[in-house]
Amino acid sequence: MTTYRYGDPATRYGVARYSSATSPPSPTGGKRRMSKVALNITRLSDADALVKAQNAATACAGTALADPTPPEVTALATACTGLDAAIADRTNKEQVLRAAVVVQNQKRDTLGIAYSSLGSKVQTLSEGDAAFINAHGFDVIVAGAPIGALPAPAGLEATMSDQPGQVDLMWEPVRGAKTYIVQKCADPMTEANWQQVDLCTKSKFTMTGLTTGTKYWFRVAAKGADPATSPWSDPAQKMAP
User: Cβ atoms within 10 A of the Cβ of 182, count?
Assistant: First the structure.
């Protein structure tokens, strides 16, 4: 009878540890294929990547892997907290920025009305005298003169359409513009993500074919008779209905 120094292995560790009879057979009859962890989350949005990471950190913290907790679990949990705070901070700042843009556009409209009103007054008093107009701080329209470089369209607003997957865009018309270039960008907004959608002749456009529930950014540029285009407008953001 064999005597084991530390006890019978069959009772101490279990028969399965030393017997191949209990090992699951390979479906191919050969060596079992090893699965690998999918690590690439670079194509995900920040929000989706955060959810993936939070799920992994939570799952690992609740298993034997976390006894004792390895530094990788702690590091991932800390990274999740940091990204979550950054997303919240960006969202708050975007809301503040949008509110500031609305106020700025309102003030610009008020300035435009006041400027036009005073200009009409000067026009009446000038009786068509160019020197009088110039002396009072206004330019004189010269027939046939080139308009020059076009400014960026101002006051771009994006509103939900009544139809799913559609967003209505509207902006202030640009003097001298023949067409407008309309672009969209799925969140996150990066220069590489901008896509040209269409050209339009009016200062409004309905964006179609959007994915419901997805946040998009929009911008427009004016194009006149000159080949050059204006700078891009300030971007406007809206979630597709």
Answer: 19
Half-sphere exposure of 59 (CA within 13 A, CB side): 6
Are 169 and 234 in a shared domain?
yes
- Which tens digits make up the pLDDT trace of 72-127? 888 998 999 999 999 999 889 888 887 887 888 788 888 888 988 998 988 999 88
> Do 110 and 163 belong together in one domain?
no
Q: Exposed/middle/buried for 233, CB within 10 Å: 0-12, 13-18, 19+?
A: buried
- Is the C-alpha dihedral spanning 203, 206, 209, 212 positive or negative? positive
Q: Could you list the residue range(s) of the whole structural domain that residue 176 is in?
A: 157-239
Single residue among 65, 95, 115 that ends a domain in this structure: 115
Q: Find where tokens 């969140």 sit.
A: 187
CA dist 121 to 108, 124, 133, 137, Å? 20, 5, 10, 12
Reduced to 3 states, what is the DSSP secondary structure of residue 213? coil
- Give all strands of the β-sheet with 179-186 in edge-to-edge order: 195-200, 179-186, 215-223, 236-239
Spatial distance between the Cα atoms of 60 and 54, rounded to a whole number of angstroms: 10
| pTM attached to this predicted model | 0.44
Residue 89 burial (CB < 10 Å; 0-12/13-18/19+)?
exposed
